[in-house]
Design a protein that fits this description.
The protein is of the alpha/beta class. It has one domain: SPOUT methyltransferase, trefoil knot domain (Alpha/beta knot), CATH 3.40.1280.10. It is built from four helices and three strands. A three-stranded parallel β-sheet has the order 2-1-3. α2 packs across α4. It is globular. The protein starts with a helix and ends in a 7-residue tail after the last helix.
Length: 105
Amino acid sequence: MQSEEKAAFLEKLDPASRIIALDEHGKLVTTSEFAALLLKERDFGSGKIQFLIGGSHGLHPDVLAAAHQSLALSKMTFTHEMIRVFLKEQVYRAFTLLAGKKYHK
């Protein structure tokens, strides 16, 4: 399964983007730290980020190696469909923080 996904991932990577793999072994960050990461890329990087979410077997090692960094959204295991929702929520919260607005904790 990973081998089949590998080619699809690698051919769609944008070399101008910051590539962030979501992986169970990635670094755990707070929402504020995630916002700082997005701010840094927005203001001082290319302004583009590609998030990689693997299937049920995770990302192929070659895909992980192509990423600039790996993040974990939790130490728990979730389906990749759920991770998409969690990631969208964290991006929303991060940009809410960057806009100086409060969000409910």
